[in-house]
Structures
1.
Amino acid sequence: MLDQVSKGRRPASSVSIFSGKIQCGDCRDWYGPKLWHSKSEKYRRTVLQCNSKFKNKCQTSHFTEEEIEKAFMHTVSQLVFNREQIKEDFEEIKRIAYDTTDLEIERDKLYVELESISKRMEDTISENARVALDQEEYNRHFNEMTDRFNSVKEKYDQLTAWIEDKKSRLLGAEQFVKTLLSEGEIKEFSPMLWHSLLDHAVVARDGKITFVFKNGMEL
Ligand SMILES: [Zn+2]
């Protein structure tokens, strides 16, 4: 979970809406647009393939944008078919799955501890300036406090990232349900649909594309 947060996504290498959204099942890098036969007007076309295809010798296939759009819309039609159920399910799990209360309590405790360590460090520094302390002892004690501070700070940062991640996932899932319900008929592909419904897609070696939607559903 925390790994996922810190790993992040490749910045989009071009303006393609498909950049950074389709993951290679072989090497986990992202798909990006590549221009094929760029010198020939007749055969020139853009395909999407793993950005590390040749570096990692990936066996996952390439797709045209149209193929991705078609596969995506086919899957979306299944979502639309079940949208009332999806909405109900989301309402039911929302409070549990995206709840950050306990994490925030834990984070606040760490914050208090950070403040307390920081205060003790300051006190120790000013004591050392006033009184002739054993410097070896002083340094040892100070280093201990620094280590403690750093280790608590690391946990604090991880929790903060986790909380932010959960919150943004909740926003994404809410947007997902809203989009799914707002349209009467969803038939045409649009970048808006692509962005508001899809978290990312994964391409398997056999060419199968699994779409991971923003409510956590995988189809
Ligand atoms: Zn790959």
2.
Amino acid sequence: MGARRNTTVGLLIASMTMAFVASTEAAPAVTVTRISGASPLTDQACSRTTAKHAETDGTLSINPTDADNIVTVWTQDDSMATVVGVSFDGGGSWESVIVPGLSRCSGGDYYESSFDPWVSFGPDGTLYLTAVMWRSETDTDPHPGFKYAVAATRSTDGGLTWATPTLLSQQSTALLLDKATVTADPTRPETAYAVWTEIVALASSLSWFSTTTDGGLTWSAPRIIAPPPTPGYAQFGSEIVVASDGTLVHGFIEFPLPQVLLGPVSPTMVKAQHSIDGGDTWSALPVTVGSISELPVSDPEASSRTFGVPWVVPRWAAGPDRVVAAVWHDISADGTSSIVVARSTTLDTWSTTIVHSSPVQAFKTALAFGSDQTVAVSFYDFRNDSPGDATLGTDVWMKLSSDGVTWDEVHLGGPFDLRAMPTHGSTILPGGDYFGVVSTPGGFATMFQMGQPSAIEGPSDVFLARVLTAEE
Ligand SMILES: [Ca+2]
Ligand SMILES: [Ca+2]
């Protein structure tokens, strides 16, 4: 590492339709396209041999001014760079673009890694991106010794070119800056919100917030928005969604600290607070949305091996008529699982519904609302694994409901071998711990990661599934 790469490299990837399920009267039509391929990092100095051509984590956003402009983002080659996949034809073909300045391998001069990327389009088509950056402590040059940063950048051409990153926070003593997310406000022009967790020490974590009101040119000084967690608990997993009336909702979890050290011992609480003035002031006491028993995903063919950090990060979404929802998976000690959706319109009281129960582990969830209250929940599970063979067969699914009661299910991809996917550290879910779903004209789109044999360039690839539920 240490090599400087200076420019954004574009790599045109021919689209490849993996599967097409013809529409019947009731069944949604699914089209899956591979987005990523070989790593666009071509410099050998930017190659980690254990994770070459590996894509992990990520999410996506669709341009409100041009529904054919879809942008996905992911972490490339175990945090060597943040890369976006850009489509201008509704997901049929994709260009990979290295986001410049977020790591040494993408033209930066200090931080060696960038990870936890997020993208969000504003109503005017401005695209906001945040990522966390890290530098190891073997610091021998005259820099001031920062270890972590949260950076924001923006694109005004649909994701092809990016501004010089703005550093929202730099820390030299924190254990970790983690899980930055950015959310453009569909109700306020040129406004977006970034939140992230600063883990000060094992006994202390804080949720930080910064906002832009000039389209991402400048960002406010970060401040803490949630009250400190209950003693003995830590905050994590912040995400902001904007309800249809413009109310901001900050969702996060508080998990008991012994869980970090000893494994799950008591439920994690899912919490939310809200702001009606664009984030200037926040409801003082976050409400409890639900609880998660927080058993990590484990390998059913090697049950002593667990995947994933011992806390689950819920995903949040806003829908029509002021509804806000969160989704998470919950794994039981006997290996069964459920996927839970919590909803609220008042933001004071929340109701939870189990939308999927499984005799096998289901995990890693994301959701979105359509314009008509249809909700889509995507997730992974082991239902198609063959017990006792050499691979851990894993599939990706989407469940859809227009009434929140009855759910249709469609297959998006797999089976692929989860065990063979790249992992960023031994405790992280192979392939990363988050992905995304968005509403599109006529349905939904999910970006997700799969390993071999679904992936054909390296140990993982990123895919987009378009699910059409109605005429476009
Ligand atoms: Ca197996
Ligand atoms: Ca790949």
